[in-house]
């Protein structure tokens, strides 16, 4: 079993932290995204969309999408449960995974891809859209800060995969010059708590 | 227990079809999205993001995000299982839920919001981005057609929530004038099979 990844990218990091929380050892194979190796016909056999990370199972089949890879390991090694412990908590975790993806990771990534020199010539850029996404990403920092005024973690007092997702996105947002602001005292408290977990270094 | 929804919108439809598959009766409360009722301070108590659908539980708490609502019901009434039956299948279903959201529903929705007269004055539009999203949505029609050449459903021979998501998005894509093309024979076969299920009328 192994995971194809690019160490620098935020999505593989979500999986590494998740596996560290479960104390699951893994072989990682680095894919050179600057050379575009993920778009090669060979790699697209593993993930038709040419995206990372990709989990290769021992039967030779492949799974992609970070949260899908994490869910596989939640099923094969439940402890500690990171997707919720009962029906309502599982739904709340799912809600926050999706909020973080749709209204935080996605606008942050779209801002980066549409405004950064890094993608000039690699992607068709629409800077006006990128700037609008920068505002959306900034708004989510505020939403998180408000939420953490009354909650230790995204799902109340329960640390979950949703916190891992949000934590990686806060760090990723530095590429679009978004950072936790001095007035985000609750968000900062949560961030420091997640950063203090050994898994955050994975 | 009740669900706040807008009958016309694609996301609540995913939940209605899911509940029909499980034969779960539900009270639906219509929210007037043309009047912007979902953005009222009262409604934002139910979902801070002002989005539909929202499930109100009997304890008065609220869950949002369609797939999170569906996951709640998968847990409280497992049969028939629609999120997968074992670890690997659950991960494959999750992978396809996310592919359909990120690379199909999202570009389709962003094209609609950035190019349609319906949103003029309601949202800041970036038509160039909308057109780029139209191409992404069209690409996913091709991806689906290729997939269904060798698979009955998204997760192989197993009908799942991912098929419900993709089916609702194919129908939704009509708002950006995207339709199944005559050459999409495999996609058409899958579409007809899902449309023939009684749940599709929910």
From TrEMBL, chains A, B:
Top-level taxon: Bacteria
Assigned EC number: 2.5.1.18
Record-annotated GST C-terminal domain positions: 86-202
InterPro entries: Glutathione-S-Trfase_C-like (IPR010987), Glutathione-S-Trfase_C_sf (IPR036282), Glutathione_S-Trfase (IPR040079), Glutathione_S-Trfase_N (IPR004045), GST_C (IPR004046), Gtt2-like_N (IPR034345), Thioredoxin-like_sf (IPR036249)
Pfam family of the protein (one): GST_N
Keywords: Transferase
Any single GO CC term annotated in Swiss-Prot or TrEMBL for this entry: cytoplasm
Recorded GO MF terms: glutathione binding; glutathione transferase activity
Domain GST N-terminal: 1-81
Protein family per UniProt: Belongs to the GST superfamily.
PANTHER family: GLUTATHIONE S-TRANSFERASE RHO (PTHR43900), GLUTATHIONE TRANSFERASE (PTHR43900:SF97)
Protein's recorded name: glutathione transferase
Taxonomic classification: Bacteria, Pseudomonadati, Pseudomonadota, Gammaproteobacteria, Oceanospirillales
